[in-house]
Amino acid sequence: MADPTPNRFERDTAVEALGTGRYRGTVDPGWAVIEGAAPNGGYVLALAARAMRDALPHPDPVTVTAHFLAPPEPGPVDIEVELVRSGRRHSTVAAKLWQGGRERTRLLGTFADLGAADGPTRLDRPGLDLPPLDDCVDATSRSVERAKDGAYPAPPILMRFDHRMPAEMMGWAEGRPLGRGEMGGYLRWADGAPMDTLGLLVVADCYPPPVFNMGDSRLGWVPTIELTVQIRKRPADGYLATRFTTEAITNGYLEEDGEAWDADGDLVVLSRQLALVAR
Amino acid sequence: MADPTPNRFERDTAVEALGTGRYRGTVDPGWAVIEGAAPNGGYVLALAARAMRDALPHPDPVTVTAHFLAPPEPGPVDIEVELVRSGRRHSTVAAKLWQGGRERTRLLGTFADLGAADGPTRLDRPGLDLPPLDDCVDATSRSVERAKDGAYPAPPILMRFDHRMPAEMMGWAEGRPLGRGEMGGYLRWADGAPMDTLGLLVVADCYPPPVFNMGDSRLGWVPTIELTVQIRKRPADGYLATRFTTEAITNGYLEEDGEAWDADGDLVVLSRQLALVAR
Predict the structure, then answer these.
(1) Which of A97, A121, A151, A210 is the one with CA 20 to 30 A from A270?
(2) pLDDT category of residue B60 using cuts at 50, 70 and 90
(3) Which residues contact B43 (CB under 8 A, 6 or more apart)?
(4) pTM recorded for the entire structure
(5) Nearest C-alpha of chain B: how many angstroms from A45?
(6) Cβ–Cβ of A253/B119 closer than 8 Å?
């Protein structure tokens, strides 16, 4: 029998259907990047996507795009869902996330039942070149220890995951950046809950920006303009292996490309965001 | 003085404002992939984007996403534009493209004035490894010659561009595929018109699918579910260098990643589409 108790992710992205495509959710403060500040964009995307798929026979977002208009604050949000087209294999849905009379996020996504996908498979893309899991640092515990030692507080969203990162990926926080725009490692939910395709929407945006590893003093915070996540497969149990890169910054605009692979060695996510170097 | 005569691309994507966010355009048959068939998705995207930006102070799509619901046919289309948010640096706009009482494409985009973008620039991404332009084949002329010789007709959209392609990229049409999912080369408009940021939306979808170069008999036509194009810069005069790749096919779902660089060596486009192997 499935565990009837919702896990932390399910609880914090729960939505209540109010009828005629209207939903109510609550932005939980536990998904902020900085204590008390705006929630992570991937979390907002997942919260909205749970409403978007509520009335569909298709539970998996195969491609969903969010344009971030203004960050919501912790507390209630309203989500307005419009079914654009519903077919046998796919449903396309648009959504608006509102708070305090102001639209915060606009979304557009296509959903499918990935459990029923049955076309050809071929993987020419090389997998990730990460060290073995046991050679990685427990980045979640490390961050908590550093916070106790008086460093900056551990980001709330970090605590939602069990992060295992190659040591070289973490040097940026101690003044030893990689010198290239890369971030990543292994992760799973901190509470051991299974990862589903809505959770992958958070995974696609849960790391510090790869630009932090560039060692370029011009680059600080990089607010997301748009995030698109493509999901291929429901992940197998176990840690996901992830990689996020930024390779081109053009007059302040940059991409953040992400990929995640499951414990079966299958590609489960391709993501890309457009972000802008904050002035 | 600027040439007041619209070029072919401008003419075929012209829209008439009918008021209150409503526009009328015409799908021209000259942008089909197969004579008499549905228009190219990038062309439909550009047509809609011209309406989307009509009322904005921001002429350049920095990121625009289209979900393709059903292909339109040549002839009149209606475009309904909703201004989601207008700020100093960016405007976000949603749009619906209708024909015959049926929605064909849903879009969401953010626009900027790329001429005024002034943040940092840093390019770590390697450029394309194409042979020099003069060593490439005039793929447009070659296709027309082949059509005269009784091969399949030249695709109308091919004639809109002056395509110069590495010889190895063209073998797939004669039974000698590359063996990997790649397509690309140099291109400019066939009529010599300058390439603008709306034209780049067509460039992002104008090649045969990279899967044609895989040499995998399971892979035929791959209809696009969603296409997102990120634009960084107004291109310099001259040929664009392009590369499109497909590296992972998962139960029929695949990505098509594109990039285009201008004659100044700057990255101008990053694109990604989600497509599905046709049954």
Answers:
(1) A97
(2) very high
(3) B12, B13, B27, B31, B157, B202, B205
(4) 0.97
(5) 15
(6) yes
